[in-house]
């Protein structure tokens, strides 16, 4: 396979393309080298009929009114990242400035081929995820967006842990302002995830500066869970993992490579805790050997999970289903995306590991939306309801399985659902219902947590039903019943193809 084709195959939306499609893209591709600070696209460029993929280096997207050398980027495009597709698909001018921050190589792909790529499930999932992220960066009132930029700038400028903690104290108030300022919950959640990513990156940089043994290259820090899916809430903790190149040597001191990296992870999470971002309480953190491995070790672990979904080679024997779910959600926050090797093993699950895919579905439908518990609450036989555990998690799990069934690994919940529509089990109606309920419950969660923050309480997912309006209780009841109905129907269909719930 051509080198360019092989490169494209590693990244969405090209990861599910056939060899012939990849080779056609490679044949039509134009590979261009740019110096640092070069402008690739400008605000006035019209008739954009190409899409660009970063092959090496880095490209930032800047607002045209704020495109100086010291500006805070709207977005940063690392290796494998795609830009220019919105202008290509809409026929509008680019509207922003795309500029390199270091010597870079960019692959330019023709629009006539890319429109076909974006019309397929993986392309649609990519676009849906891009819309979610773009909403986080650009959506909502200008004042709210500007406030998020100010917070991110103060985070980037922090030179000590104390300064970073001070900057991070603005995050809860930012969330309150964004939500009360008219932004929808999905957008606020995505913005919060972007800001958390910024804190993590700065905490990493501070950890490097304090330890000369920490390598500056050939590592990748992964965000897991809701932050990775860009669905963070103020109550979210920080899940993480580390991956590194197998060629990375031990430092010159008497410390080992692995111990240096996990020590760094401990420092990072200690800093994050001071910033009000606690580590995952179940131990899904990069300072644990289970979540800190070389790229080849992660690849081997993924293959083992596929062969033995109920076991793991880790020291405590975690279920492969649990580990794979965490790592498939993973997103590289800093470092080389190629070092995140788990999703690649899961992108052809339907063709290469159908039994593992069926077990993913069984796991997804085992955690049922709690209709009866909610009914008891509404009948005053209970007082509280856990919005995350009994409403959001069942949807997230179904969406993860749905995405894997069509070759989509890491993506947001709405993007996974959109990609899975019509996969043979989930219908368009199912996807519409699940997406609608997901958005509803996320709005209830965020509204509840915003009120808790404003009153000085710790944000959480358990609501007192009496605090909800009659309309909210009715919508929540109907929504959870919709999710349960989809689960029952999916379980019935799955049973006919050999999956038992």
Automatic annotation (TrEMBL):
CDD domains: NT_GlnE_GlnD_like. Residues 13-91 form the Cyclic nucleotide-binding domain. SUPFAM superfamilies: cAMP-binding domain-like, Nucleotidyltransferase. It comes from the Bacteria. One of its GO terms (molecular function) is [protein-PII] uridylyltransferase activity. InterPro entries: cNMP-bd_dom (IPR000595), cNMP-bd_dom_sf (IPR018490), DUF294_put_nucleoTrafse_sb-bd (IPR018821), GlnD_Uridyltrans_N (IPR005105), NT_sf (IPR043519), RmlC-like_jellyroll (IPR014710). Pfam families: cNMP_binding, DUF294, DUF294_C. This is CBS domain-containing protein. It comes from Rhodococcoides kyotonense. The lineage of its organism: Bacteria, Bacillati, Actinomycetota, Actinomycetes, Mycobacteriales.
């Amino acid at each position: 396979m051509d080198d360019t084709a092989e490169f494209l195959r590693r990244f969405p939306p090209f990861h599910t393309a056939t060899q012939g499609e990849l080779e056609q893209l490679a044949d039509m591709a134009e590979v261009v080298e740019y110096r640092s600070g070069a402008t690739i696209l400008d605000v006035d460029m019209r008739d954009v009929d190409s899409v660009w993929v970063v092959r090496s280096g880095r490209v930032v997207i800047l607002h045209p009114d704020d495109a100086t050398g010291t500006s805070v980027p709207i977005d940063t495009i690392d290796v494998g990242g795609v830009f220019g597709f919105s202008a290509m698909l809409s026929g509008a001018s680019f509207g922003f400035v795309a500029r390199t921050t270091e010597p870079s190589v960019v692959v330019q792909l023709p629009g006539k081929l890319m429109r076909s790529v974006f019309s397929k499930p993986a392309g649609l999932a990519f676009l849906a995820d891009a819309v979610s992220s773009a909403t986080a960066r650009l959506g909502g009132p200008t004042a709210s967006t500007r406030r998020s930029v100010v917070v991110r700038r103060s985070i980037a400028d922090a030179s000590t842990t104390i300064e970073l903690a001070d900057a991070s104290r603005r995050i809860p108030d930012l969330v309150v302002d964004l939500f009360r300022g008219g932004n929808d919950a999905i957008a606020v959640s995505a913005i919060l995830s972007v800001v958390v990513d910024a804190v993590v990156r700065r905490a990493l940089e501070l950890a490097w500066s304090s330890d000369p043994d920490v390598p500056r290259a050939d590592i990748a820090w992964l965000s897991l869970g809701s932050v990775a899916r860009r669905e963070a809430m103020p109550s979210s903790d920080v899940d993480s993992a580390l991956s590194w190149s197998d060629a990375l040597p031990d430092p010159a001191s008497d410390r080992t490579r692995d111990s240096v990296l996990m020590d760094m992870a401990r420092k990072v999470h200690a800093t994050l805790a001071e910033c009000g971002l606690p580590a995952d309480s179940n131990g899904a953190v990069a300072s644990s050997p289970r979540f800190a491995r070389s790229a080849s070790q992660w690849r081997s672990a993924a293959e083992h999970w596929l062969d033995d979904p109920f076991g793991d080679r880790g020291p405590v024997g975690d279920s492969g289903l649990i580990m794979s779910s965490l790592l498939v959600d993973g997103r590289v926050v800093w470092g080389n995306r190629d070092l995140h090797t788990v999703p690649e093993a899961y992108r052809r699950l339907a063709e290469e590991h159908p039994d593992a895919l069926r077990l993913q579905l069984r796991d997804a439908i085992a955690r049922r939306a709690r209709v009866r518990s909610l009914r008891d609450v509404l009948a005053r036989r209970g007082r509280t309801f856990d919005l995350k555990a009994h409403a959001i998690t069942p949807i997230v799990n179904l969406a993860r399985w749905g995405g894997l069934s069509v070759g989509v690994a890491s993506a947001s919940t709405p993007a996974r659902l959109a990609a899975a529509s019509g996969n043979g089990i989930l219908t368009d109606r199912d996807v519409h219902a699940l997406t609608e309920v997901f958005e509803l419950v996320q709005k209830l969660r965020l509204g509840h947590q915003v009120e808790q923050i404003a009153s000085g309480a710790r944000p959480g997912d358990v609501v007192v039903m009496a605090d909800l309006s009659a309309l909210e209780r009715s919508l929540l009841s109907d929504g959870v019943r919709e999710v349960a109905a989809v689960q029952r129907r999916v379980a019935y269909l799955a049973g006919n193809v050999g999956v038992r719930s």
